[in-house]
Design brief:
alpha/beta, Rossmann fold, about 30% helix, about 190 residues, about 25% strand
Length: about 190
């Protein structure tokens, strides 16, 4: 099913902050979770458990670029990751102790990019370089949204706008978010409510 095939009210738009969601088309079903994996997990789980039908979850938001020169493939310069991984959990060590760990979720209809999610606000060039070995983008909620959606059996799509290079410039996020939110809102107009 494509997004346009679903009733607009059965598509749940999920954003971490109101700033990122300020240009979501009127009448859209919107959930603002708060920043970080725990808040996103709790808010989305509550919403999906409430029982109102949801046919697709779309997580919109901003992301840091982990590699230089990244530009989105579509006309709005956005990314639709094909996979998201949880970068700040010790999966290797926990697996070595015999625990089954899921720390990566594959997303259909993506653009080939990989998003790394974690509760760390990445603004350090050394950490950026480490994460770039495994991913193209970094955010703080994508893996939580993908994980909860999977647990509820609901298709999930992530739509991300780059605002910074996950380095010292990331601290300028408050001044950059409005332009990114406009592009995300336009994507929703074209692909969900259009």
């Amino acid at each position: 099913m494509t997004v346009n095939d679903a009733s607009p009210n059965s598509v749940l738009i999920v954003s971490a902050t109101r700033a990122e969601a300020q240009h979501v088309p009127p009448g859209s079903r919107l959930l603002v979770t708060g920043i970080g994996k725990v808040r996103a997990t709790l808010a989305l789980s509550r919403e999906l458990a409430a029982g109102s039908p949801v046919t697709q979850v779309i997580n919109i938001g901003t992301a840091g670029a982990l590699r230089d020169g990244m530009a989105g493939d579509d006309e709005l310069g956005l990314f639709l990751p094909s996979a998201v991984l949880e970068h700040d959990i010790s999966s290797t060590e926990l697996r070595a102790m015999g625990y089954v760990m899921t720390d990566r979720w594959e997303l259909p209809d993506g653009d080939g990019t990989v998003l790394a999610s974690g509760d760390t606000f990445v603004a350090d060039p050394v950490r950026r370089e480490e994460l770039a070995r495994h991913a193209h983008l970094v955010d703080m909620e994508g893996c939580a949204v993908a994980h909860v959606s999977e647990q509820f059996g609901i298709p999930c799509r992530l739509v991300k706008a780059i605002t910074d290079n996950a380095d010292e410039g990331a601290m300028e996020w408050p001044q950059l978010v409005d332009e990114a939110a406009r592009r995300l809102g336009r994507w929703l107009e074209i692909n969900v409510t259009g």
